[in-house]
Write a structure and sequence with these properties.
This protein is of the alpha/beta class. It is built from 14 helices and 23 strands. A seven-stranded mixed beta sheet has the order 2-1-9-8-7-10-11, with helices on both faces. It has a seven-stranded mixed beta sheet with strand order 15-17-18-13-12-19-20, with helices on both faces. Strands 21-6-5-22-23 form a five-stranded mixed beta sheet, with no helix packed on it. Strand 22 and strand 23 form a beta hairpin. The model has no long low-confidence stretch (mean pLDDT 95).
Length: 536
Amino acid sequence: MPVDEAIQIKGNSILGFSEAAGGTESVKAIDPSTGNEIEPPFVGATSAEVETAAALAQTAFLSYSKKSGAQRAEFLDEIASQIEALGDTLTQRAVQETGLPEARIKGETGRTTGQLRLFANVAAEGSWAQPRIDTAIPDRAPLPKPDIRSMQRPVGPVVVFAASNFPLAFSTAGGDTASALAAGCPVIVKAHSSHSGTAELVARAIQKAAQQTEMPDGVFSLLFGGGRSVGSALVSHPAIKAVGFTGSTAGGTALMKIASERSEPIPVYAEMGSVNPVILLPQALAIRAGTIASGLHVSATMGVGQFCTNPGIVFIKKSPEGDAFIEDFVHKMKETAPQVMLNATIRNAYCDGVNHLENNSRVTTHVANAEKGSDGACLGTTTVFEVNGSTFLNDESLSHEIFGPGTTLVRWTDKSELIRLLENFVGQLTGTLHATGEDISEYSEVVSILERKVGRIVYNSFPTGVEVCHSMVHGGPFPATSDGRSTSVGTHAITRFTRLIAYQDSPQSLLPQELKDGNPLGVSRLEDGALQNPKR
């Protein structure tokens, strides 16, 4: 499908319904398969352009926050349609900028448009806002009871930092943007330098959707530039009321610090990383070792290991069955060809992490990183390491995330050591348990530990692949995320960008539609303690 002239890549920041490129510094995207630069250069936003984007968003919030759920849904649906209209232009640019295969990009495009339409449905339906009504009892003794009504309301303009490893689903129009727009919050996206052209194409699609659905100017902006300049300035700006971030622990904690030191501190919802422990219990391993090894291999190498749910650490009991499993898994990893990683920064960090393990005399290297010195293509090779439980417990560095296709196998001797190993973990996005009914009965403490340590427990499967649905939780205790009570995937994500407001003895004319007598929107709501669901 031919691309409209209005959505050609120019290298300019998008400021509401306008664009700008007033900065003096620019950066080109890099093709990670060759190391070559890709035209055009992307001009970093100036401080004045940051100010303009924030001011536009602040003004847009006054009207956008009052748009009905149906109007927001129309906007989100139109964004999805405009992204689909980009067709092969978007696919080929994303492939070129990331080195990801075409099938992956097309699948991620579908996930992105699916998320937008899911949140459109949520916005239109309305019960996500949790409306509650307690009607007045004027003659109650000893004091009358007032009429009190409450619901979630949008918090204000939101800054979203695009992720390096998901150029679409966790970036310009990804889950953070979709959920914030559904809640009624204007969004400013800080583009990721690794896929700037992809970001601009999607941003122009959003801009066009906003104009066609008559949304206010400033409901969406996209800024290019460095995280330490543009990103920090956005988080510091008083117009910004919340932040969504997917990236490194260092990046997330830096934003949290900036946000907490403002005169008005704001929440930062940061998804920062995880090693996603996998526990193989004895009976499951004895019965289906081959199946588990094959599944683990696929999960560990999917996307060249560049998923935040990559299974980085696997706990295996010391036993003949465990030895046989490792031999099988190591063989599969050795046979896996090197693949292009997303960018040189990620590849170099992966190599540094691998080198740390290879140089540790108490760690056994089963599969070494053969691409440490390669130039040009950002190739990543599989690695497998083995360490005993006591060493793992006494060396905190062994539990650090190594972002890439590497796996560390930890051998435990008995249940008490396994319990100590798991208790020693900090917060994670996921915890995976391969177990039979007999295993679960014998190791019931493991499930209790996982409930305290992770955001999603996976049984007899693997953590890669995050289903976008109402019940999904993609979060976890710190440091996996900045706030373990939240999720960045699934419809619960919308409440990150809202706050509760109560209306006491309010005139009907001043109430949101969701709280008015007669329930004009027909939403599910709590009325005098009883759940009312008129659509059933």
